[in-house]
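WARN retry 2 of 3 for item q-0093 after timeout on previous attempt; input resubmitted unchanged.
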Amino acid sequence: MDWFRDATEWMYWTWQSGLAIGGLLLCIAALGMWDARSPSIARKGFYPIKTTRGDRFFIGIITSILIFLLWLLIVGNSLLLIPSAIAVVWFLVQGRRG
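OK item q-0093 returned
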């Protein structure tokens, strides 16, 4: 594990960032197992293209990051529960209807 520590020592790791990355990896693994058991069918929702579960998951992650960055740009780092709620609701809506 020394090679890993040496390769990543320039990064500032916290337990929160480790938890977020671990959760993302678990979600990707779960999506892979789900797709192996029940293959995703591309469908057209409110996006102008046909998307699969994985596509909508990726779009949800990217747009959630965008929501947080816009919040930080406009409001600053106060009241972070509001963009969290907006991101969760958006993620669920676009995952179901996107």
